[in-house]
Design goal:
single chain, about 750 residues, mainly alpha, PPR_rpt, repeat, TPR-like_helical_dom_sf, Pentatricopeptide repeat-containing protein
Length: about 750
């Protein structure tokens, strides 16, 4: 066996230099010249003895063999050229083991398998599908299908183009596919959305690595097969040892989808055991999972375990507080992040503005607005939409208009935010005007636009405008959309067009829980209490689980003296099905008994609930006393509420003014209205003004009711004119009644 030759760096450099200067004879050169060039090449003194021996053996074989002499295009010459490239890459600087004489061509072919990247083939496989097919055909002709690395490149190329039939043919032709080959096939089937085929390949594997498991778990997570993903993760943990950070990120995303806090906490324990709790990506995903489950304490724990903080981790924590409408804490975190020297991104600002809007923190919102505008001449569309939404919810429609004009882009999201802000601030006609302006500008309207303008049409109770919008919805092809259909049902029910609402409901292809809720509310507003309860039962027969809003809506539909028995049945069902009731359901039960005239039952439920710090529950009790004409009890309840130091809201005074109206307490009602009008914390609603007109009318003060209409700080709508018409009819004032009727007709 030849002695081992180890070249120094200088000798290697010389050898490489000479090799670069040598030129391989082209295919047009005569064969004898090629052999001469080969002799000169093999006798070069710069090569180590072992390699010279190999080349001389190759030359002797070419001369003595009875086979046709190889040309530069044959497989042997291709192998030789591949070996030369290998030498040029420095792969031959290692020991060359010659345990016995072997066919030099085979030895060189073995050496070429060490070549981990053929530049020409790899680059060709990165081209089009046709280039890939041509390159594959060339590899078959050249006999390169035994090179697992190159075949894996072909598999990857076919998988990228989605031609899995070609990939399968290549894979089936491999004598011993590597684990990379299996993973490539699994990934290819996942890319063409054939997760079941990918699972078949997965089950056929005898050996799997972490990439194999992660690929399939990710596919299950993305295709909303959450239970399969968790089951596969459990199998991986038992069979293959510890997962990595990618695995944990995927299974935590699955827990977020399922809102499975228990499983998420178990995975958190495994993460801590693997030492990945300080990882930014894993920790941020943990925060998001806990935020979806409304577990802020655990989200904070995961946040503080991070080794360092970036904008993504801060944004995740701020979004967690924004979800639970904790605007003060979210804004405090926003300031702390900036103090740490981390600049917020677009998502951070949007999440903080959303949290601020829910808590009506106008001053903090203006502070963020000033920071955003500093140094920027034009607002970003997404941030501009968030600012408009914040100003709209905080009652500052003027600033919302300024932001809308500052954005200067006809983006649908900005127009949707401005229309929604107008609806929030009872500027319904301005919202409808914006809708028509958008049509004139050729704006591409979406389902959110239609939902907002339909809400505005419903609130002004204008059936004709709503019918025009419905026609436009059909023309644009948005009628099958569930959100738009739900809004149409609500619109028609508020306009007393119950038959049209039923027609929309029956035309829908699928029903969500919101759809059932809207239709139950429509029956309740139409006075069809029994049908509302029957629809509630039918919903459960369709295996649709009612949520708290659905239950509260069904109870509201029973809030009539003729539907007291149905209301009691619902109360019994709730007692059996729900162990814990939220504030909306509790107040709906009290409100139902109060409006049915069963004040004793309402007060009994009110006391039994024992959650007296909830303003919604107090509002329901005050409204119950008001509806029963017990103004004195309503006032006592209000004074007790003030003694509990609970923050009052707008609806507290709607119930109180209604109680004063029913009891004929004019002075007390006027005092309450003046308090609301001068308050900085309670927003004046149109319902308050309607209660004052009803108060004057019931007291026989028709002139005061008429003059009050001109003093209302809103544009008078149908509700206001209807209240004036009702009191005019009660007192036989035909002139005032006719005038109010004419105003109502102008609204369509």
């Amino acid at each position: 066996m030849p002695a081992v030759w180890l070249a120094s760096r200088k000798q290697n450099f010389r050898r490489y230099t000479v090799w670069r200067e040598l030129k391989w004879p082209s295919a047009t050169v005569a064969h004898d010249d090629s052999i001469k060039a080969l002799y000169a090449f093999t006798n070069s003194s710069v090569w180590p003895p072992g390699f010279r021996f190999m080349l001389q053996h190759f030359q002797t074989w070419c001369c003595a063999s009875q086979w046709p002499r190889p040309t530069p295009t044959d497989k042997s010459m291709h192998s030789f050229k591949s070996a030369s490239r290998l030498c040029h890459a420095g792969a031959c600087s290692r020991d060359i083991p010659f345990t016995h004489l072997q066919t030099t061509n085979n030895y060189i072919s073995n050496m070429t398998s060490e070549l981990q990247n053929e530049p020409d083939i790899a680059s060709a496989l990165q081209g089009s599908l046709r280039d890939c097919q041509y390159t594959h055909a060339y590899m078959v002709e050249a006999g390169l299908t035994g090179d697992v690395f190159l075949v894996n490149l072909v598999l990857r190329a076919y998988s990228k183009f989605g031609t899995m039939s070609d990939a399968c043919a290549v894979f089936d032709g491999m004598p011993r596919p590597s684990i990379i080959s299996w993973n490539t096939m699994i990934g290819g089937y996942i890319n063409v959305y054939s997760v079941d085929e990918a699972r078949l390949f997965f089950d056929r594997m005898f050996q799997r690595n972490v990439v194999t498991w992660n690929t399939l778990i990710t596919a299950y997570a993305r295709h909303v097969k959450s239970k399969e993903a968790l089951h596969l993760f459990q199998r991986m943990y038992l069979e293959s040892g510890l997962p990595n950070d990618v695995t944990f990120i995927n299974v935590l995303s699955v827990c977020s989808q399922l809102v499975d806090l228990k499983t998420g906490r178990l995975i958190h324990v495994l993460i801590c055991g693997c030492g990945l709790a300080s990882s930014l990506t894993v920790g941020t995903t943990l925060i998001n999972m806990y935020a979806k489950s409304n577990d802020l304490k655990s989200a904070h724990f995961a946040f503080h375990k991070l080794s360092q903080y970036d904008v993504a981790s801060w944004t995740s924590l701020i979004s967690a507080y924004a979800r639970l409408e904790k605007g003060e804490v979210a804004f405090d975190l926003y300031r702390r992040m900036q103090q740490e020297g981390i600049q917020p991104n677009k998502l951070t600002i949007q999440s903080t503005l959303s949290a601020i809007a829910n808590k009506l923190l106008l001053r903090e919102g203006k502070a963020i607005h000033s920071c955003v505008c500093f140094g920027d001449s034009r607002l970003d569309v997404d941030i501009g939409s968030a600012l408009i939404n914040m100003y709209g919810k905080c009652g500052s429609i003027k600033y919302a208009w300024l932001v809308f004009k500052d954005v200067k882009l006809n983006a649908t999201s900005v127009w949707n935010a401005m229309i929604a802000a107008c609806v929030d601030q009872t500027c319904y006609w301005q919202a409808l005007s914006l809708y028509y302006q958008g049509l004139q500008k050729g704006l591409k309207l979406d389902e959110v636009t239609f939902a907002n303008v339909l809400s505005a049409s419903a609130l002004v109770v204008n059936l004709n405008i709503g019918l025009l919008i419905h026609t436009h919805i059909v023309e644009e092809g948005h009628e099958p959309d569930v959100v738009v259909s739900n809004t149409l049902i609500t619109f028609y029910s508020r306009c007393n067009a119950l038959e049209d609402a039923i027609a929309v409901f029956k035309k829908m292809r699928s029903y969500s829980v919101v759809t059932w809720t809207c239709m139950i509310a429509a029956y309740g507003q139409g006075g069809l209490n029994r049908q509302a309860v029957e629809l509630f039962q039918q919903m459960q027969l369709q295996h649709v689980k009612p949520n708290d809003v659905t239950i509260a809506t069904a109870l509201g539909a029973c809030a009539d003296s003729i539907a007291l028995e149905e209301g009691r049945m619902l109360h019994v069902w709730i007692s059996f099905e729900r162990n814990v009731l939220n504030s909306a359901v509790r107040s709906a039960i009290v409100n139902m008994y109060g409006k049915c005239g069963a004040l004793a039952d309402a007060f009994s439920v009110f006391k039994s609930l024992g959650v007296l710090e909830n303003i919604v529950l107090w509002n329901a009790m005050i409204s119950g006393f008001a509806y029963g004409g017990h103004g004195g009890e309503a006032l006592l309840c209000f004074f007790r509420l003030q003694g509990e130091c609970i923050q009052l809201d707008e609806f507290t005074f709607v119930g109180l003014l209604s109680a004063c109206s029913h009891a004929g307490m004019v002075d007390e009602g006027i005092c309450c209205f003046c308090y609301v009008a001068s308050s900085l914390y309670i927003r004046l609603l149109l319902e308050h003004c309607v209660c004052i007109i009803d108060l004057f009318g019931r007291a026989g003060q028709l002139a005061e009711a008429q003059s009050f209409v001109y003093k209302v700080p809103f544009l008078p709508d149908v509700c206001l004119w209807s209240a004036l018409e009702a009191v005019s009819r009660t007192h036989g004032d035909s002139v005032c009644g006719k005038w109010a009727s004419e105003q109502i007709l102008e609204f369509g």
